[in-house]
Amino acid sequence: MEEDINTLLNNKPEAVRYRRSLSTLIILGTGIIVFGFWGIIKLAAQLFFGIELFRPGDLDGFDETARIIVTVLVFVFMAIDVILRLIVGLKAIREGREKKTGKGYLVVCFWLILGSAYSVFLLAMELINMEDSFIDSFVAVFMELSSLVISIEVFIAGISVKRYKSKHIVRVN
Predict the structure, then answer these.
(1) 87: in domain
(2) Do 151 and 112 form a contact (C-beta atoms < 8 A)?
(3) Total count of domains within the chain
(4) In 3-state terms, what secondary structure has residue 98?
(5) How many helices (H) and strands (E) are present in the chain, helices listed first?
């Protein structure tokens, strides 16, 4: 208990950054979970409302079996993305509450960052080439860019917390 009070009363710049990073992990960990639910909403909308997953002509040259396989693979990758976002978000919140977590969620977060960066690039190219309607492309770029920024912030805050803990040997429950 005394150690926790000393941590709270410590107003050195390092300690302030540490506490700020803990808050960031809690808030933005929740944001990553929200983007995971956004993935579920997109998946449900495509399934239940018959929203086309591919643009006309994308699957030309594929027979019906190949189209089904490609569609199933896309849904599997979307489900994996949602699960990974939930894991990263929950682990970030746990880390922000100073509970014991490993470094694995930071590795997964890094992969989410790479995937989001690639997705932003592809969506920006679609926006530039006007392959879809401007509004649809703009919203897609905005959502993916927001997800990318949140993932980067969680990654930075997570590394900051891990460094502080290793340097100052913070007791974790």
Answers:
(1) yes
(2) yes
(3) 1
(4) coil
(5) 5, 0
Domain of residue 127: give its range.
2-168
Alpha-carbon separation of residue 119 from 43, 113, 125, 144 (angstroms): 16, 10, 10, 7
Distance CA 147, CA 166 (A): 28
How far apart CA 54 and CA 60 sit, in angstroms, is 11
Separation of first and last alpha carbons in the chain: 12
Nearest by Cα to 155 from 78, 95, 82: 95
Question: Per-residue confidence of the chain (173 residues) as pLDDT tens digits?
Answer: 445 555 556 778 888 888 899 999 999 999 999 988 887 787 777 777 776 666 666 667 778 788 788 878 888 888 898 899 999 999 999 999 988 888 899 999 999 999 999 989 988 888 888 766 777 778 888 888 999 999 999 999 999 999 988 887 656 55
